[in-house]
Amino acid sequence: MRVVPLVLALAACNQQDRAVPTYYADVRPILDENCARCHNDDGVAPVSWDDPANVVAEANLIESYTQSGQMPPPAPDPSCADYQGSERYFLSDTNKAILKAWADGGAPLGDPEDAPPAWQPETTGPFDIELRGEEAWEPTFGGSDPNAYRCWAIDLGNETEVYAKSIEAIVDRAKMTHHAVLFLDTTHTADTTAADGFDCSGLGEDGWQTMAEWGPGSSPITVPDGMGLVIDPNARLVVQAHYFDSGDNGPDNLGFGINFVDTVTTKLYDIPWGVYDFTIPAGEADHTETMTQQWPLAYGNMTIYRIWPHMHQLGSGFDMDVERSDSSETCAMHMDGWSFHDQANAELLEPIAVNGGDTLTVTCHWNNSASNPQNPNSPPQDVSFGEGSTDEMCFGFTYASFGM
Predict the structure, then answer these.
(1) How far is residue 11's CA from residue 4's CA, in Å, rounded to a whole number?
(2) N or C: which end of the chain has fewer CB within 10 A?
(3) Domain 122-264 CATH assignment equals 1.10.3720.10
(4) Which CATH architecture has domain 265-404?
(5) Secondary structure tally for the chain: helices H, strands E
(6) What are 7-66's pLDDT values in tens digits?
(7) In the chain, which residues fall in CATH 2.60.120.310?
(8) Does the pTM of the predicted model rise above 0.85?
C-alpha cells in the first residue's frame, strides 16, 4: 500500500477551500515530489523550476504534458515489482486535477508563507570517502563523434574486504554526463598517477568489474540493513565518466561518494545482464532483443535486490522476468516506455529469488522510426550495440546475493 506524503494530502485538502489552487500551497509540493529531480538548476531538464516565474510561464505546458501522460517520464511499473520511492515517478489523478485547475485558473502564485520547505536533492552524504581525481578535465568535442570518456583511478587503501552501505554519484554537469560507472580494477593496472584522468573505453577495460552505475534521474544506491556491496582487499577503483556534447560543456571532476558498514550478514555483488550483439533496423518502430540465461543448479540461489535498466535514446520499453522451472513467471521489472533523461534505479520492496534451473530474461524495446522524437538520426539509420550516445545498449544491472 502506497502512503501519500502528508504534505500532498494536506495540499489536496486545503485546495478545496480555495476557488483556484495556488503555486506555493498546492502546486509546488507536487512538483517537488514528482519533477524537481530533473527541473532544477543543476538538472537535465531544459528549464529549471527553482524559479517560480519559470513554473508560471510554463503552466499551460505543465497541464498539457501531465494530462496527456507525457510527464512525468516513463518509469518501472510498481504493479510488476514495487520499489522504494516509486510514488515519485507517477502523478495521481488528484494531483493531475490540481495542476489543471491551477493552470486553467491563471496560475496564481499565492502566499509564499504557504510553501513547504525548500526542495533538496536526495543524498546519502556526508560520505565516509569521496572518490575523485586530483584535477578536473574538460572534454573537447569535435568532428562526427559527440562522445568523450574519461577515467580516474584511485587506490582505496583497504587491507581487508570492506562493504559499501551506499554509493552515490557526485555529478556536477548532469546535462553533459551520459552516464557514470564505478569499476573495480582487478588487474591493478589502471593509471593512478594521472591527476586529470586518462582516456578509456566506454565499456571499461579487461579486468574491470562494475560496482555502481548512474544515469540522468538515477537516485543514490542504498542497500537494506545487514547487507553491503563487497569491495575486495587492496581495491583499485576507477571512476568513469561518459560525456557527450550537450551545449552545457566545461571542466568536470565527477566522483562517487561511499559510506561503509563494518559487518554484514549478506554480501551483494553488481551483476549486469543484457544483450551485446544486435542491430536495430532503420524505420522499425518496435524492435526487440532478448537475453535468456538459465541459472545453473550448481550455483545455488540468487536473490535480486536492485535493478537499474539502461538503454539510450531509441529505447521504448524494458522487461526483466524470471521463468520458474515449473513454467510459472515472476515479473521483476516492466516499463511501458523509456526516458533516457530519467533512469530509475529501483530498490525492490520485495527481493526476487532466482533458483537453480530458473531462467532470467531481459527484453529491450526500441523505436528507430521517425515517430520517435528522441531519435538522433534524421532520417533514421541502422543502429547497433555500442558505447556512444547515438549507439544503443540493453542492460539490466542488478545488485544480488548468492547462497545455497
Answers:
(1) 11
(2) N
(3) no
(4) Sandwich (2.60)
(5) 5, 20
(6) 444 444 444 446 899 999 999 999 999 999 999 998 889 999 999 999 999 999 999 999
(7) 122-264
(8) yes
